[in-house]
Amino acid sequence: MPRLKLGVLISGRGSNLQALIASCADPSFPAEIVIVVSNKSDAKGLDHARAAGIATAVVEHGGYRNRESFDRAVHDVLVGEGAELVCLAGFMRLLSSWFVETWHDRIVNIHPSLLPSFKGIDAHAQAIAAGAKLSGCTVHIVRAEMDAGPILVQAAVPVLPGDDEDSLAARILTMEHKCYPLAVKLIAEGRVQIDGDTAIIDMPGDTDDHIISPSVR
Ligand code: GRF
To answer: pLDDT tens string for the chain (217 positions)?
Structure first.
């Protein structure tokens, strides 16, 4: 079966990109990365892509007169490389409604909270400030509104006493690196059906495992 062709958009560190690269290195994984696009030329994630022999492109937003013209340049790169699914992996730019509609149901994002809680850039701080006992991460289909859209995969982690943003972010990031490849795999295997604002996942063998925080001993 042909592998689903991914275009990954990054702005920085690229640890989720690295998780996708590692998954795609397995020939049985049903997707491959055809292009990594960064809006920053010094994004560390570009090094991960180059080390893996993956094509990269830098499209610096400063050179464009508005959001849509930047997005059209990114779109042209993605189409030129044959991308079929756009994976936002720490891409720190809001996408225009033109781009989101053009790639309708074909853009996924990862966010470090259990959406719809704690949208925005300071998700970890919000979870701590709210006194949440669980937080986590969400992979979702992108809609025009920030951090919104059909939820594909979530993982929960405890928020522990004494956590600061860094310690919580590190705990969540470990799960991000599992959830993003899983979401891509589910899409590539045709197990995801989008029904308006929700996603129905065909996942035989799901369990009713649960997590309680603080844990019951
Ligand atoms: C991750 O926490 C992701 O959830 C958020 O931005 C961060 C990107 O990290 N959208 P990395 O660049 O993948 O390491």
So the answer is: 899 999 999 999 999 999 999 999 999 999 999 999 999 999 999 999 999 999 999 999 898 999 999 999 999 999 999 999 999 999 999 999 999 999 999 999 999 999 999 999 999 999 999 999 999 999 999 999 999 999 999 999 999 999 999 999 999 999 999 999 999 999 999 999 999 999 999 987 777 788 899 987 6
113 forms beta bridges with none
Q: Indicate if ligand 1 lies below 6 Å from the C-beta of 40.
A: no
Query: What is the CA(15)–ligand 1 centre distance, in A?
Result: 7
For the question of residue 111 being annotated catalytic, the response is yes
Q: Is 46:17 a contact under the CB 8 Å cutoff?
A: no
CATH code of 4-192, in short, is 3.40.50.170
| CA angle in degrees (0–180, nearest 5) for 12-49-97 | 55
| Segments making up each domain of the chain, as ranges | 4-192
Ligand 1: distance of its center to the CA of 16 in Å?
6
Could you tell me if the CB of 150 is within 6 A of ligand 1?
no
- The answer to whether the Cα torsion of 55, 61, 63, 64 is positive or negative is positive
